[in-house]
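Side project, low priority. Logging it here so it doesn't get lost.
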Amino acid sequence: MQRTYIFIFFLFIGSALWGQERKISGMVRDNTGPLVGVTVGVKDAPGGTTTDEDGKFTINADSSRTLVFSLVGYLTLEIKPEGGKELEITMQATSQGMDEVVVVGYGTKKRVTNTGATSAISADEIRTVPTANVQNALTGKLPGFFSQQRSGQPGKDASDFFIRGVSSLNPDGNKPLIIVDDIEYTYEQLAQINVNEIENITILKDASTTAVYGIKGANGVLIVTTRRGVMGRPKINARVEGGVQSPVTKLKFLDAYHSVLLENEAYTNDGLNPPFSQTDLEHFRTGDDPYGHPDVNWYKAIFKPYSLQTNANVDASGGNAIVKYFVSGGALVQNGALKDFSDPRNELNNNYYFRRYNFRSNLDIKASKSLSVRLDVTTRFGDLNQPHAQNIVGEIYNFKKIRPYSAPFLNPNGSYAYDRYNPGNLSTLNARLANSGYSRDKRTDLNILFGVVEKLDMITRGLSFTGRVAYASTESASRHLFRGGLLEGYSPPSYYYNPEDGSYTLDPRGQYQLSGYTLLGTTNDYNKNLNLQAFLNYDRIINDHHITSLLLFNRQSATDQKNAAVPNKFQGYSFKIGYDYRQKYLMDFNLGYNGSDRFTSGKRYGFFPAVGVGWNINKERFFNVDLINLLKIRGSYGVVGSDFVVGNRYLYVQQYEKGGGYPFGESSAIGYPSIFEGDLGNDNVTWEKARKLDFGIDLNMFDDKISLTVDWFRDIRYDQLISRGSISQLLGVGTARFNMGKVQNTGFDGQLAYRNHIGNFQYNVTGVFSYAKNKILFQDEATPAFPWLRKTGHPIGQTFGYSFLGFYKDQADIDNSPRPLIPVQPGDLKYKDLNGDNVIDENDMGPIGKPNLPNTTVGLTLGGSYKGFSLNILFQGSFNYSFYVTGTGIEPFQSQFQPIHELRWTPGADDAKFPRLTTNSASVNSPSAYPSDFWLIDANYIRLKTVDMGYQLPGRWLPFKINNARIYLSAYNLLTFTNYSLYQQDPEVTSNTAGDAYMNQRVMNVGVQVGF
């Protein structure tokens, strides 16, 4: 029995020792570094601790208990400690929590009390996307954000973007307003911002959120907030990355043999003698005469398969109760993909490249108990280089300038060859690249913001005054070093090598030596912008009533000093008042009263009111559903404007233009300056207006693990400034624009996210969707001969053309079918006769396809992390749009022969994908002369847009004073899936062009991020 008692005693002591509290320590971070202020506690127990400046914590807890980690904006984690190991905790941001702070016009709101339509993203989610431009990284990430990347050229690869589609009949009148730290930026300035400087990005989509911008708010607003310092010891973060760029679409052209076969066929079809004999064909087929019958793939000969990109950033932040700071510097280099053909003696670089250098300093100073001072300074330097006066991709496409068989790459003695088939006998492209020179644009942007905030609690609690002075300047100049003319490429001395006798013949221009270089400098931009803001803020909770308000004065003056122009003036007032009762009943009233000097004195100012209301149903006592954290319905309605003017800045002023001169006297060679009457003025013009209606719902469930936001909207854009198409040209003089156009834009957008964890494995799935379809309600146009020719009732950018019915099969088919006034042959395109007159002409051109801007976009983000490992994948898709390629992009004898041309119509072909080949560029088969839906691609695409895979190194591995290190692999435009295969243009190509822009790039990137 005694032994039994002793055994029970020691068993009790062991259990007590096993279950007693012990110290548990570790570090908490996210993918960007340590997290400060994370609450660490024991589940179902009081008390706890928080992480320090280095993200570290220590807590006493029973080893069998579960630890809970929580921080506003992050998914709560529950972790059971493993033995005596120091914990390494990685937390995942939750961007749709109730307490998420949303940036709105001149302030912030919590998502739970916001009544407007907004979409936001933290810059942490896009910081490692290997692209030079912020807007490229937003594609597929924000509902309501539509973008198209038209070019991949270094320094010119920024996407065009729109908020909720387009609704203005003036193309540039659809650009959103861009605000960086409450100061207006241009598109070009946004493209220059380093994403490392950014804290978050928000787009404002409805009238409730944009009315404070009044005359500038009709197209939505993109707001960028930059990073600022926080209290704590200095923290230094550095990121270095490098990547390999390669074209998303690699151009494919037929070789010399297959090209001349098709060329002979085209000549035969036209009743002409084929230019190449059977002997020529045999030489091209066997390749046994590389100089007399060359075969050069000029795309592969000129472009490298890849180029390099590097990016480096370093920032420091910290501060105390008096001063807080954030300082950042960065350098980006994008290289072009041209091979180096330059003569070392030339000492010039004519390749494409872009170099950008950024610096930012944000200071916050607590000058007194009530006064805070802010000083932001940022500057950006850009250096963009490209070949002089040459579109290299366009030249490679251009059949008239170069062909695979027209000349060898170099002659046997190393001299340059010239193209005997080219009307100007130009030397080959590599020769001109080596000697034509370069054009280099240098740009400097400077922004300075000085602001003060004075608390006026002595008057009433919650009242404060803010004043800001912002100065911005842009200087851009070009340096052109070139041979020959300024506007055309230079052709150096070149020779025809005759392999039969080994002779060399100089090109017909008779130049035996290179001409000297000409150096020319031009000023592109030199402008300054001064912005003054002064506003009163009021934010106070009285019992259960939360009241906010703002009264703002805003004045802006922009000066084009290059042209010594009169400054552009903008001035206005904005008023906001918000109210919520226990976060249950919500109301926001916004009013803009502002004007622009673009209109006459009596038409400059206008009121732009908007109201937003919301109801948090889950705050009601009768709504007792524990699984739902947020259920809010909201709506808004208001009027906003746009002061964008096409052409003449002052439409109310009569225009007079300078003529080229008029000869007097006996000699016609001597002319005297003349002035002629330009467009008539219109005193009644004023800004465009937009009535915006929006209904939305916000839903959070299961402790914010599931979040949903959906909005439906309808915008009516009216009083649009358009030209009077119904005024006959017999008037003999142009007229100013009138406020007459009207467009309706309707759609919906939203975001659905799910975030959860299984132990240490955290995962998330986020889908965004956007749909916006517009319709022209009125566009002043001459009464058309037939109703299908009218543009009113169709979307903006609707293409008009002929409807393809098939190919003319034979002469009998031609005789029994409507046909154009020009001769046609079997194998030509046959079009629908809309007016029934048996003649195909411009009266048979109706609406075909869709506009070039997709009306539907989606994005799907899949993410996960486990003990320092993380993976995020974004699929992005665009649907319901069309593009149309013409000229050198697709037309035979203008374009190089491409694989699609081998699918041409021939007698007996039932599966032809291309009309018969012809040398006639004005035939019925030409997409330039006869636009039709045969050439129109109704396109959809899905891209594997971004991939980010990284590993956060454990703190115990880090030497010296490094407290954070992450290595990562990232990719951009990794894979592309389209619904078409016969055309090789990128799916984001600009319609009605040759589609010969510098190819969009796929980037594979590796980087390391280190924090001290």
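Brief comment: Residues 800 and 847 are 4 Å apart (CA to CA).
Revisit when time allows.
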